Structures are given as C-alpha cells and as structure tokens.
Amino acid sequence: MTPPKEPSRPPIPTSRLSRSARVGRLAAGQAARQLGTRAANITRDEDGKRRALERRQIETAEQIVAALGTMKGAAMKLGQVMSFLDVGLVPEEYREEFQTKLAALRDAAPKVDFKDMRKVLEREYGERLDDVFETFDPVPIAAASIGQVYRATLPDGRDVAVKVQYPGVAQAVRADMQNLGMILRLMKSVAPGLDPKALGDEIRARIDEELDYELEADNQRSLARIFRDHPFIVVPPVVSSLCREKVIVSEFVDGRGFEEIKQLPQEERDRIGEIVFRFYFGCMYRHRQFSGDPHPGNSLLLKDGRMAFLDFGLFKHISEEVAGRELRMVRLSIEGRAEELAADLRASGFVLASARYTPDQLLEQFRDLTWWYTTDEELALDPEIATQVMIDMSDPRSRHFAQMRHESMPPDHLFGRRLEVLTLAVLGQLRARANWYRIAREWIYDAAPETELGRAEAEFLRSRG
C-alpha cells in the first residue's frame, strides 16, 4: 500500500521585512515591560522585587523563544542551546512548559520533499544523481537545522552519508541574521554588560560559515586527520571530490544514538562521558579548533566502543594566545590567586572598567562557573548541575547577578563558553561520573594522565609526534 503523501509545505520565508516586524514587536513589548518592572520595584519590598524579577525573566525567556520561533535554519541554534536540558533558566514550576517550547525549536527543522532536495544535488553536481552515486536512498536518515542527511553508496562500493542543504535556507538564515540584533537586545536585559554588536558580528560570522558546506568539509577533514587511528574517537573522513557549497559527503558510520546511550549501565556512561569531555575540551585546548555545537545528536557509539563525532559546521579556531589566556585564568582560579585573576579578567575584557567589586568576589564567581572540572573529587553530574552553572553564568537568580551587569563576553571567547556549558549539559544528561579535574589537568597543567583512556590517548599523541 502506498503511504499517504505528506502535504506540501509553504516555502521557507526569506523576506527580512515581514519577519523583522514580528521580532521587532516582541522586542518592543519586552522593553516596555522591563521599564514597568523597574518603576514598580520602587514601591515593592525585597520579596516582591524578587517575584517581579522572576516573572520578567520568564517573560524574557518566552519572548526569546517566540522570536526564535519566527526564524528558520541556523538562527534556531540560539534556542537549541538549552533545548536538551532537563530544566531551563526558569523557576521550577514553569520548567516543564518552557522545556516543551524549547524542545519544539530543537525539532523544528523543516521536512522537504526529496524531489526538491534532488534538484539541489543535481544543480550542485551539474549532472544526474544516478551518474554520481551508485545508489541513493531518498528517505533521510537525519535532519539538521539547515539540511537533511541521506545514505548512499559510491561506484567503488563505499557507504556514505550525504548532507544536503535545504533549498532557500541560506537566504532565510541570512535574513534571520539581520534580525539577530533584536534577539541580543532581549538578552541584554538579562546581562546588561553584553556588547550586542560585537557578539552579533561573531555569531553572524560563524553561522555564515556554517552555510558553506565546503568550509565544513575543511573543518571535518582537519579533525579527521588529527584523530585518524585514535583509540576511542572517530571523525568520519570526507569524500572531498563530492563536497560542494550545499552538499557534504562523508564516510557513513553506524552506531547507537544518545537516547539509547542514556539507558546504558553507569560504568559505560562514565566511559562515554569521559570521551565526550576529552573530545570537546581537548579539541579546544590541545588543537585550538573545535565544534561549537556539542549536541547529543552529534555523536554515536560504535560497535567497537569508540565514539564517532559529527557535524562541524558551527566551528571555531582560536589562537594560541586566546587558549593560553583561558588556561592561565583557570590555573589562577584553582590556586586561589584572586588579584591576578581579577587583573586578567579586566585585561581580557570580561570585566568592564566600571566594575567596583573585589578580586575575591570575582574569584568566587569564576569558581562557580568552572568548579565541576576544577574540583579535585569524583562528581556525578546531572541536569540540575548544568542548569545551576547556566544560572550562575547569565540569570537574575544568580547570586552574582549584580556583578554580571558590569561584565561582558569578548567575542573570541564566546563559542568556548558555549562549548563548556553544552558539554556539561550533555554530561549531565548522561549522568556521567568522574573526577573531571584529574582529566582536565592534562591540558590545564600538562599533567600525566591518570585514567585508562588518558593513558591510551597520551600514547596516541606521542605516536603522532
């Protein structure tokens, strides 16, 4: 029996004007409510102020979700940042409802008929699909925010994964990026020290790169070379001759996804958690190039116990100076050198010149953001820990919120902090257990490894020079 045909969907809107109007109304409405809250707070007691601020925070979060919901493609990644946390940046009684809204963003990738995706493929290759691939399964095996993934075989018999960009999505995303300033102004109501222009420029640059699959192929090729023959990490090689601006082809890997991994025994989840931690943090600090998208859907557990990592569109290179500065600040925090840490934070642009709080206050705040991998004890991570770190990083309920109003996020460090908190969120979902500090010491202090995986990786690195 032929399955019913899915109703045709309207094309992805690409007009900035229509969508800009929707986002603009959301931003304007939120600004008016913020003014109303500040005026009313003059006559409220402390408990009333707290409740009002909490309501404003919920409304701000919902406004951001609503604004993101008017967007398509890569801009939705701003909402996906929080979409796989068990709890969100809202009070407990509102979490389930808010989480549902964020999950809807995560799953909102459009589904496009294969005939339209085929046109993209044949336009990119300049020839019929049957002349490029030996076989091509028209049923997608995965959907990403800006494309769909298919399984195919090459004339030489290799199984490959073919990621194809949705028709029209590049124009839609670029229109969304014109509206990004409105979203960042909403976020500025939570963290007033942020520089929306500088952050907007950095986000636009990374997402604009994500639209070019040939750049993504370069990113993946670089990491595949770094991790070739690694004992427990796999980055599938790309088929360079078949990669185009809107098509990326890589060797197919088959493995268990995150939902299945979460059901494994504790010992196996601990091992997987250590691999995830080593891959993302190791890429950032050892290799100074990393995926800015540590999402559960971007890794698979292979039959031989190795972990495969996928999707390198949202990618960041950092200089040796930036990596060294971050590691130095972590060492200063661990060692309790508050004066030096405060000086470094100010010199790096994390703390504004207007700030009037003490080095000890800054040290305490820094430790609250990094304690899970700078505390020398075994820790069982969970979603509540990830959420608390998120709160301490950017939320009015944080005890550091008064300080945050005099802080910023230098653009070169933005995606590194995103990597940190999303990696923590993945580990929290796994409920993985380890002494994360003992692992992190390998790149913080160039210390000898203390775990079986660490020793295996050290041997691999030695063999590669």
Helix/strand layout:
Blueprint: H1 16-41, H2 46-69, H3 77-80, H4 92-106, H5 114-125, E1 135-136, E2 142-143, E3 147-153, E4 159-165, H6 169-178, H7 180-188, H8 196-210, H9 213-226, E5 233-234, E6 247-251, H10 258-261, H11 266-287, E7 289-291, E8 299-301, E9 307-309, E10 315-317, H12 320-334, H13 338-347, H14 359-374, E11 379-380, H15 383-394, H16 401-404, H17 411-430, E12 433-434, H18 436-444, H19 452-463
Parallel strand pairs: 5-9
Antiparallel strand pairs: 1-3, 2-3, 3-4, 4-6, 7-10, 8-9, 11-12
Helix pairs in contact: 1-2, 1-7, 2-4, 7-8, 11-17, 11-18, 12-13, 13-14, 14-15, 15-17
Structure in words:
There is one protein chain. By secondary structure, the protein is an alpha+beta fold. The chain folds into 2 domains: 16-106 and 175-205, no CATH class; 253-465, no CATH class. It has 19 helices and 12 strands. The strands form 4 sheets. Strands 1, 2, 3, 4 and 6 form a 5-stranded antiparallel beta sheet that branches. The protein has a 3-stranded mixed beta sheet with strand order 5-9-8, covered by helices on one side. It has a two-stranded antiparallel ribbon with strand order 7-10. A hairpin with a 5-residue loop joins strand 8 (299-301) and strand 9. Helix 14 packs antiparallel against helix 15 (383-394) and helix 15 packs antiparallel against helix 17. The longest helix has 26 residues, at 16-41. It is globular.
